[in-house]
From TrEMBL:
Subcellular location: Cytoplasm
InterPro entries linked: ATPase_NBD, Gcp-like_dom, KAE1/TsaD, Peptidase_M22_CS, TsaD
CC cofactor: Fe(2+)
Binding site for substrate: L154, V155, S156, G157, G158, D188, G201, D205, N300
Its biological purpose: Required for the formation of a threonylcarbamoyl group on adenosine at position 37 (t(6)A37) in tRNAs that read codons beginning with adenine. Is involved in the transfer of the threonylcarbamoyl moiety of threonylcarbamoyl-AMP (TC-AMP) to the N6 group of A37, together with TsaE and TsaB. TsaD likely plays a direct catalytic role in this reaction.
Binding site for Fe cation: H110, H114, D328
Protein name in UniProt: tRNA N6-adenosine threonylcarbamoyltransferase
Native species: Leifsonia kafniensis
Reactions it catalyzes: L-threonylcarbamoyladenylate + adenosine(37) in tRNA = N(6)-L-threonylcarbamoyladenosine(37) in tRNA + AMP + H(+)
Keywords carried by this UniProt record: Acyltransferase, Cytoplasm, Iron, Metal-binding, Transferase, tRNA processing
Gene: tsaD
Family according to the record: Belongs to the KAE1 / TsaD family.
Length: 366
């Protein structure tokens, strides 16, 4: 089926068009620059940007895919979780499009969409005329079908979640998630402490190259034996962020220079260590030899490196979709919509609304 997907849960206005598992276009407009002066995503600013970008983005995605709106079989849209006002713009646009075109609509879960990104592949013919939105990087994970069950680790500015995916369209279980800050949020906050600009993730990655990851032993949240009983698959990054801030302040108060590269490398190491320790534990505990990574923090060089090392050592197959499909995008939403259609699921009724706290087990709105 030919599906147009709309994503607007955070600061990306993403419109993607897929035919089954084939990616036809993936237009992404981010309002990230507008949030830079605040050091984090401002919900009202994000919602307003979605309003401005929505129609031009739909037009661009349709033109790039070389289709007509009338050819679509369905519209898919993220209905949660995410920022309420931001989600509402996408939901409103999707409903308007579905009603105007007389097409069915599938309202889907953003986090499950991140897993769906893994299924997509680019048609070979596209290599002849490469365009900016074509996924960069190594061969797509989606060239081999996704096998079930799989463990998925999703890490972004708004989420840090471990999922057990038994079936993308019918059985996704939340094993654990952050109890405070998301990993990307921690990168952004620590970057601020170090005087680095927003978004902090790429900046920390850059300066950490010259640092010693063992210079400072920062805490690994929720990994003490007493925490592991109740929070085996949960994450906590707020204590780590505070530990870094205290460490830096102590140096500044003593009039000493702050070794930014060492702090960045040691902080990054703590985040990566705890993320992968818990992800690999989840694979072991559930006897699942497959791990899928998703979300914007997957851009982190050290995370990719350690993920490769630890999964190789544990005999776990590692899948990382190209970065343009890891950060928020509409193509992954369209891909999930197409999977629902192919599995024979009925469309959502137009009654659904945006749900900022939508649980991951609710894959599609009824
Ligand atoms: P959502 O949580 O809804 O998926 P988001 O917009 O917060 O949305 P993304 O756009 O997927 O998330 O990712 C942005 C986050 O990823 C930011 O917090 C940014 O600092 C972080 N990030 C980007 N590159 C890196 C990197 N190289 N290392 C670590 N973090 C990174
Ligand atoms: Mg973003
Ligand atoms: Fe996301």
């Amino acid at each position: 089926p030919l599906v147009l997907g709309i994503e607007s849960s955070c600061d990306e206005t993403g419109i993607g068009i897929v035919r089954g598992t084939t990616l036809l276009s993936n237009t992404i407009a981010s309002s990230m620059d507008q949030h830079a002066r605040y050091g984090g995503v401002v919900p009202e600013v994000a919602a307003r940007a979605h309003l401005e970008e929505m129609i031009p983005s739909i037009e661009a995605a349709v033109a790039e895919a070389g289709i007509r709106l009338a050819d679509l079989d369905a519209i898919a849209v993220t209905n949660g979780p995410g920022l309420a006002g931001a989600l509402m713009v996408g939901v409103g646009a999707a409903k308007a499009l579905a009603v105007a075109l007389g097409k069915p609509i599938y309202a889907v879960n953003h986090l499950v969409g991140h897993v769906g990104a893994d299924l997509l592949h680019v048609p070979a013919a596209d290599a002849a005329h490469p365009d900016q939105s074509a996924p960069a990087g190594p061969a797509l994970a989606g060239s081999e079908p996704l096998e079930y069950p799989t463990i998925a680790l999703l890490v972004s500015g708004g989420h840090t979640s471990l999922l057990l995916v038994r079936d993308l369209v019918s059985d996704v279980e939340l094993l654990g998630e952050t109890i405070d800050d998301a990993a990307g949020e921690a990168f952004d906050k620590v970057a601020r402490v170090l005087g680095l600009p927003y978004p902090g993730g790429p900046q920390i990655d850059r300066v950490a190259v010259d640092g010693n990851p063992k210079a400072i032993r920062f805490p690994r949240g929720l990994s003490l034996p007493k925490d592991m009983a109740k929070h085996r698959y949960d994450f906590s990054f707020s204590g780590l962020k505070t530990a870094v801030a205290r460490w830096v302040e102590a140096r500044q108060d003593a009039g000493e220079e702050v070794p930014i590269a060492d702090v960045a490398a040691s902080f990054r190491e703590a985040v990566v260590d705890v993320l992968l320790t818990k992800a690999v534990a989840a694979c072991h505990d559930h006897d699942v030899p497959r791990l899928l990574l998703g979300g914007g923090v997957i851009a982190n060089a050290r995370l990719r490196e350690v993920a490769k090392q630890r999964t190789d050592a544990a005999g776990i197959a590692l899948r990382i979709p190209p970065l343009s499909l890891c950060t928020d995008n509409g193509a992954m939403i369209a891909a999930l919509g197409a999977q629902l259609i192919m599995a024979g699921h009925a469309p959502s009724s137009l009654e659904f609304g945006a749900d900022s706290t939508l649980p991951v087990s609710e894959i599609q709105a009824s």
